[in-house]
Amino acid sequence: MLCRAKINLAIDVLNRLPNGYHTVRMVMMRVDFGDEVNVSLRSDGKIALSGNDPAMPLGRENIAYRAAEAVFQKAGVFPGCDIRIEKVVPMGAGMAGGSADAAGVINMLDDLLGGPLGLDERLNIGLSLGADVPFCVRGGCALAEGIGEVLMPLPDPPEMSFIIAKPKKSVSTKWAYENLDFSKKPEGMDIDRLVEGIRSGDAQKIFSSMGNVFESVSIPAVPEIAEYKSLLESLGAERALMSGSGSAVFGIFLGRDAAEEALRGFKKAVPDGGGLWLV
Q1: Residue 120 to residues 116, 123, 126: CA-CA distances in angstroms?
Q2: Is the peptide bond before 247 cis (omega within 30 degrees of 0)?
Q3: Which residues are 277's β-sheet partners?
Q4: What is the distance between the alpha carbons of residues 270 and 227, in angstroms, rounded to a whole number?
Q5: Residues known to be catalytic
Q6: Domain boundaries, the chain
Q7: Strand 150-154 to strand 211-212: parallel, antiparallel, or no bridges (unpaired)?
Q8: What are phi and psi of 160, to 5 degrees?
Q9: What is the pLDDT of residues 3-49, one digit of tens each?
Q10: One CATH from 3.50.50.60, 3.30.230.10, 3.10.560.10, 3.20.20.10 for 2-153
Q11: What digits encode the pLDDT tens for the residues 244-271?
Protein backbone atom coordinates (compact mmCIF):
# COMPACT_ATOMS: atom_id res chain seq x y z
CA MET A 1 0.00 0.00 0.00
CA LEU A 2 1.28 3.45 -0.91
CA CYS A 3 1.18 5.55 2.26
CA ARG A 4 1.02 8.97 0.70
CA ALA A 5 2.93 11.87 2.23
CA LYS A 6 1.49 15.35 2.69
CA ILE A 7 2.44 18.89 1.87
CA ASN A 8 1.26 22.05 3.59
CA LEU A 9 -0.30 24.68 1.38
CA ALA A 10 -0.33 26.87 4.48
CA ILE A 11 0.68 26.45 8.10
CA ASP A 12 0.34 28.83 11.03
CA VAL A 13 1.20 28.15 14.67
CA LEU A 14 -0.98 29.99 17.16
CA ASN A 15 0.35 29.15 20.63
CA ARG A 16 2.00 26.57 22.85
CA LEU A 17 -0.07 24.39 25.19
CA PRO A 18 1.03 23.28 28.70
CA ASN A 19 1.39 19.68 27.48
CA GLY A 20 4.01 20.74 24.94
CA TYR A 21 1.76 20.53 21.88
CA HIS A 22 0.94 23.61 19.82
CA THR A 23 -2.33 24.84 18.39
CA VAL A 24 -2.09 25.21 14.64
CA ARG A 25 -4.11 26.23 11.64
CA MET A 26 -3.00 24.64 8.40
CA VAL A 27 -4.14 23.31 5.04
CA MET A 28 -2.73 19.92 4.14
CA MET A 29 -3.11 17.74 1.08
CA ARG A 30 -1.83 14.30 0.18
CA VAL A 31 0.42 13.87 -2.83
CA ASP A 32 1.09 10.81 -4.98
CA PHE A 33 4.40 10.15 -3.25
CA GLY A 34 5.13 8.04 -0.21
CA ASP A 35 6.48 4.90 1.40
CA GLU A 36 5.25 1.46 0.38
CA VAL A 37 3.93 -0.33 3.48
CA ASN A 38 2.66 -3.91 3.61
CA VAL A 39 1.00 -5.54 6.62
CA SER A 40 0.03 -9.16 7.22
CA LEU A 41 -1.35 -10.88 10.32
CA ARG A 42 0.57 -13.41 12.37
CA SER A 43 -0.70 -15.90 14.93
CA ASP A 44 1.92 -15.62 17.68
CA GLY A 45 1.12 -12.16 19.07
CA LYS A 46 4.42 -10.65 17.89
CA ILE A 47 4.93 -7.48 15.88
CA ALA A 48 7.82 -7.84 13.42
CA LEU A 49 8.92 -4.74 11.53
CA SER A 50 11.38 -4.70 8.64
CA GLY A 51 12.39 -2.28 5.93
CA ASN A 52 14.88 -1.14 3.34
CA ASP A 53 16.39 1.67 5.42
CA PRO A 54 19.09 0.48 7.84
CA ALA A 55 18.59 3.63 9.91
CA MET A 56 14.91 2.86 10.52
CA PRO A 57 14.17 1.65 14.07
CA LEU A 58 12.46 -1.74 14.21
CA GLY A 59 10.93 -1.61 17.69
CA ARG A 60 8.55 0.54 19.72
CA GLU A 61 10.54 3.66 18.85
CA ASN A 62 9.02 3.33 15.36
CA ILE A 63 5.60 4.97 15.16
CA ALA A 64 4.33 2.24 12.82
CA TYR A 65 5.08 -0.38 15.48
CA ARG A 66 3.18 1.63 18.11
CA ALA A 67 0.29 2.04 15.66
CA ALA A 68 -0.06 -1.74 15.43
CA GLU A 69 0.03 -2.07 19.22
CA ALA A 70 -2.68 0.58 19.56
CA VAL A 71 -4.97 -1.08 17.00
CA PHE A 72 -4.70 -4.47 18.70
CA GLN A 73 -5.34 -2.87 22.09
CA LYS A 74 -8.42 -1.03 20.83
CA ALA A 75 -9.78 -4.02 18.91
CA GLY A 76 -9.18 -6.37 21.84
CA VAL A 77 -7.33 -8.97 19.79
CA PHE A 78 -3.58 -9.64 19.63
CA PRO A 79 -2.67 -11.87 16.68
CA GLY A 80 0.50 -9.90 15.91
CA CYS A 81 1.60 -8.78 12.47
CA ASP A 82 4.45 -8.37 10.02
CA ILE A 83 5.08 -4.81 8.81
CA ARG A 84 7.37 -4.12 5.87
CA ILE A 85 8.24 -0.49 5.10
CA GLU A 86 10.02 0.51 1.89
CA LYS A 87 11.12 4.04 2.75
CA VAL A 88 10.97 6.72 0.06
CA VAL A 89 10.02 9.84 2.01
CA PRO A 90 13.18 11.06 3.75
CA MET A 91 13.19 11.78 7.46
CA GLY A 92 13.31 15.45 8.41
CA ALA A 93 11.46 16.53 5.28
CA GLY A 94 8.30 17.97 6.84
CA MET A 95 6.08 15.65 4.79
CA ALA A 96 4.75 13.33 7.53
CA GLY A 97 6.40 10.22 6.13
CA GLY A 98 6.36 8.40 9.46
CA SER A 99 2.85 9.60 10.27
CA ALA A 100 1.62 8.34 6.90
CA ASP A 101 3.20 4.94 7.60
CA ALA A 102 1.46 4.77 10.98
CA ALA A 103 -1.87 5.75 9.42
CA GLY A 104 -1.43 3.08 6.78
CA VAL A 105 -0.82 0.45 9.46
CA ILE A 106 -3.95 1.57 11.33
CA ASN A 107 -6.15 1.39 8.25
CA MET A 108 -4.69 -1.86 6.90
CA LEU A 109 -4.89 -3.67 10.23
CA ASP A 110 -8.49 -2.57 10.66
CA ASP A 111 -9.27 -4.09 7.26
CA LEU A 112 -7.38 -7.30 8.04
CA LEU A 113 -9.24 -7.69 11.35
CA GLY A 114 -12.60 -7.34 9.63
CA GLY A 115 -13.24 -3.65 10.28
CA PRO A 116 -13.85 -3.53 14.06
CA LEU A 117 -12.89 0.14 14.29
CA GLY A 118 -14.88 3.08 13.00
CA LEU A 119 -13.29 6.18 11.51
CA ASP A 120 -13.50 8.11 14.79
CA GLU A 121 -11.71 5.32 16.63
CA ARG A 122 -9.00 5.19 13.98
CA LEU A 123 -8.62 8.99 14.14
CA ASN A 124 -8.32 8.84 17.95
CA ILE A 125 -5.65 6.15 17.70
CA GLY A 126 -3.83 8.38 15.23
CA LEU A 127 -4.03 11.38 17.55
CA SER A 128 -2.51 9.33 20.38
CA LEU A 129 0.53 8.76 18.14
CA GLY A 130 1.10 12.22 16.65
CA ALA A 131 -0.59 15.39 15.47
CA ASP A 132 -0.27 14.60 11.74
CA VAL A 133 -1.54 11.02 11.96
CA PRO A 134 -5.30 11.79 12.02
CA PHE A 135 -5.00 13.67 8.72
CA CYS A 136 -3.04 10.79 7.22
CA VAL A 137 -5.73 8.34 8.38
CA ARG A 138 -8.40 10.38 6.59
CA GLY A 139 -6.33 11.63 3.65
CA GLY A 140 -7.45 13.97 0.89
CA CYS A 141 -7.22 17.70 1.49
CA ALA A 142 -8.27 19.35 4.74
CA LEU A 143 -8.12 22.38 6.97
CA ALA A 144 -6.57 21.21 10.25
CA GLU A 145 -6.98 23.07 13.52
CA GLY A 146 -6.49 22.37 17.23
CA ILE A 147 -3.23 20.43 17.44
CA GLY A 148 -3.98 19.01 14.00
CA GLU A 149 -6.81 16.70 14.97
CA VAL A 150 -9.76 19.00 14.14
CA LEU A 151 -10.17 18.27 10.45
CA MET A 152 -12.50 19.96 7.99
CA PRO A 153 -12.37 18.05 4.69
CA LEU A 154 -11.92 20.15 1.57
CA PRO A 155 -12.32 19.28 -2.10
CA ASP A 156 -9.21 18.47 -4.07
CA PRO A 157 -7.55 21.60 -5.51
CA PRO A 158 -7.32 22.01 -9.29
CA GLU A 159 -5.09 19.41 -10.92
CA MET A 160 -1.44 20.22 -10.28
CA SER A 161 1.99 18.68 -10.63
CA PHE A 162 4.64 19.05 -7.95
CA ILE A 163 8.41 19.03 -7.88
CA ILE A 164 9.58 18.10 -4.40
CA ALA A 165 13.19 18.89 -3.57
CA LYS A 166 14.90 18.19 -0.27
CA PRO A 167 18.26 19.62 0.74
CA LYS A 168 20.75 17.20 2.28
CA LYS A 169 20.33 18.84 5.68
CA SER A 170 17.14 18.05 7.58
CA VAL A 171 15.18 20.03 10.14
CA SER A 172 14.01 18.63 13.48
CA THR A 173 10.33 19.41 14.03
CA LYS A 174 10.94 19.62 17.78
CA TRP A 175 13.78 22.10 17.25
CA ALA A 176 11.69 24.19 14.84
CA TYR A 177 8.83 24.51 17.31
CA GLU A 178 11.18 25.37 20.17
CA ASN A 179 12.83 28.16 18.16
CA LEU A 180 9.79 29.52 16.33
CA ASP A 181 8.77 33.15 16.82
CA PHE A 182 4.96 33.01 16.57
CA SER A 183 4.79 36.73 15.76
CA LYS A 184 6.65 36.37 12.45
CA LYS A 185 3.82 35.62 10.02
CA PRO A 186 4.47 35.09 6.29
CA GLU A 187 3.55 38.05 4.13
CA GLY A 188 0.36 37.40 2.17
CA MET A 189 -0.62 34.19 3.94
CA ASP A 190 -4.41 34.10 4.30
CA ILE A 191 -5.75 30.68 5.25
CA ASP A 192 -9.42 31.67 4.97
CA ARG A 193 -8.81 32.97 1.45
CA LEU A 194 -6.84 29.81 0.64
CA VAL A 195 -9.79 27.66 1.71
CA GLU A 196 -12.09 29.78 -0.46
CA GLY A 197 -9.74 29.26 -3.40
CA ILE A 198 -9.74 25.50 -2.92
CA ARG A 199 -13.52 25.36 -2.66
CA SER A 200 -14.02 27.49 -5.77
CA GLY A 201 -11.21 25.86 -7.77
CA ASP A 202 -9.45 29.22 -8.15
CA ALA A 203 -5.78 28.28 -8.57
CA GLN A 204 -4.49 31.85 -8.51
CA LYS A 205 -6.31 32.56 -5.24
CA ILE A 206 -4.68 29.44 -3.81
CA PHE A 207 -1.19 30.46 -4.90
CA SER A 208 -1.48 34.02 -3.57
CA SER A 209 -2.75 32.88 -0.14
CA MET A 210 -0.16 30.24 0.71
CA GLY A 211 2.47 30.60 3.41
CA ASN A 212 4.49 28.75 6.04
CA VAL A 213 5.31 30.28 9.41
CA PHE A 214 8.20 27.82 9.89
CA GLU A 215 10.22 29.31 7.04
CA SER A 216 11.32 32.13 9.35
CA VAL A 217 13.18 29.67 11.57
CA SER A 218 14.10 26.85 9.17
CA ILE A 219 15.58 28.94 6.33
CA PRO A 220 18.32 30.49 8.52
CA ALA A 221 19.24 26.95 9.61
CA VAL A 222 19.11 25.51 6.07
CA PRO A 223 19.69 28.32 3.52
CA GLU A 224 19.19 25.87 0.65
CA ILE A 225 15.45 26.02 1.40
CA ALA A 226 15.30 29.61 0.14
CA GLU A 227 17.61 28.78 -2.77
CA TYR A 228 15.39 25.88 -3.84
CA LYS A 229 12.26 28.03 -3.62
CA SER A 230 13.79 30.73 -5.80
CA LEU A 231 15.11 28.20 -8.29
CA LEU A 232 11.75 26.44 -8.65
CA GLU A 233 9.95 29.73 -9.25
CA SER A 234 12.60 30.78 -11.77
CA LEU A 235 11.96 27.49 -13.56
CA GLY A 236 8.26 28.28 -13.90
CA ALA A 237 6.61 27.13 -10.67
CA GLU A 238 3.40 29.00 -9.91
CA ARG A 239 4.45 29.00 -6.26
CA ALA A 240 7.14 27.31 -4.20
CA LEU A 241 6.93 26.71 -0.47
CA MET A 242 8.55 24.71 2.29
CA SER A 243 6.44 21.86 3.66
CA GLY A 244 5.87 21.52 7.39
CA SER A 245 8.91 22.46 9.43
CA GLY A 246 11.15 21.55 6.46
CA SER A 247 13.46 20.92 4.92
CA ALA A 248 11.61 19.73 1.80
CA VAL A 249 10.43 22.36 -0.68
CA PHE A 250 7.72 21.89 -3.29
CA GLY A 251 7.01 23.80 -6.47
CA ILE A 252 3.54 23.76 -8.03
CA PHE A 253 3.01 23.51 -11.78
CA LEU A 254 -0.32 23.57 -13.61
CA GLY A 255 1.00 21.51 -16.52
CA ARG A 256 2.91 18.24 -16.47
CA ASP A 257 5.09 19.26 -19.40
CA ALA A 258 6.16 22.42 -17.59
CA ALA A 259 6.97 20.40 -14.48
CA GLU A 260 9.06 17.89 -16.45
CA GLU A 261 11.02 20.69 -18.11
CA ALA A 262 11.59 22.34 -14.73
CA LEU A 263 12.76 19.04 -13.29
CA ARG A 264 15.47 18.84 -15.94
CA GLY A 265 16.50 22.41 -15.16
CA PHE A 266 16.63 21.72 -11.43
CA LYS A 267 18.82 18.65 -11.92
CA LYS A 268 21.30 20.73 -13.92
CA ALA A 269 21.36 23.50 -11.32
CA VAL A 270 21.54 21.19 -8.29
CA PRO A 271 23.24 17.95 -9.39
CA ASP A 272 24.01 16.77 -5.85
CA GLY A 273 20.95 17.70 -3.78
CA GLY A 274 19.40 15.58 -1.06
CA GLY A 275 16.44 14.32 -3.08
CA LEU A 276 14.27 15.29 -6.05
CA TRP A 277 10.89 13.95 -7.15
CA LEU A 278 8.17 14.79 -9.67
CA VAL A 279 4.67 13.87 -8.46
Answers
A1: 12, 5, 10
A2: yes
A3: 164
A4: 10
A5: 6, 132
A6: 2-153, 157-278
A7: unpaired
A8: -140, 155
A9: 999 999 999 999 888 887 889 999 999 999 999 999 999 999 999 99
A10: 3.30.230.10
A11: 999 999 999 999 999 999 999 999 999 9
